[in-house]
Amino acid sequence: MPKVIGGSLVAHRDEVRSRVFAALREQLYERGFESVTLTGVASAAGLGRSSIYNHFPDRQALLVAFVEQEAERYVAELDAALAHAATPIERLAVFGRMQLRRLAEFHLPPGQALAGALDPAAYRRVAAHADPISGRLERIVADGIAAGEMAAEGAGGDGTVLVAMVSAALSARRVVDVPPDELDASVESAVRIVRRMVSPSGDEG
Asked: Which residue spans does the record list as DNA-binding (predicted)?
């Protein structure tokens, strides 16, 4: 029977997940999901091979659990940051910075590549966590259009095209795949471009 960490089964589960997710996060950052194995994550987390299989039957289950936890944490942090921005254009800048820094943290296959790496059920669970984030961008753009800070692009002037273009810009890995000492400047450049892109006058708003 695996050794119980932390004195209780609940504490043991939380500690195992914490160690495993920390190890997975580092491996995703260093080399991407394609190279992740349960055995490698268990070793990096200081756990036995059987211990990790008791919690995650395969690497897809591990990724889904990790994304679910990270998404919950990220959405809470995003909402807290957005609450301190006074105007829609300022909220867009906050959103853009956080999205790009999040992109820099993880090397998951994008879009269809991720769909190919996961079975359909696992992919749907991972993709579902983009919905709350997309909803926040849609609200920012809608508020920006209503305030006259953003261009009313898209069918019916509802900002559909604008949301799609901003989403694409904030998903560009080339913005964040730079040396660490250049990341801040690259992120700020991208945010300035996004602000100009949404502005009715073509400036930064």
From this structure: 37-56
| Rounded average pLDDT over 164-170 | 93
Distance CA 190, CA 205 (A): 14
| Fold annotation for 67-198 | Tetracycline Repressor; domain 2 (1.10.357)
Q: Across all residues in the chain, what is the average pLDDT?
A: 85
Q: Where are the domains of the chain?
A: 1-57, 67-198
**pLDDT at position 34:** 81
CB 163 within 8 A of CB 138: yes
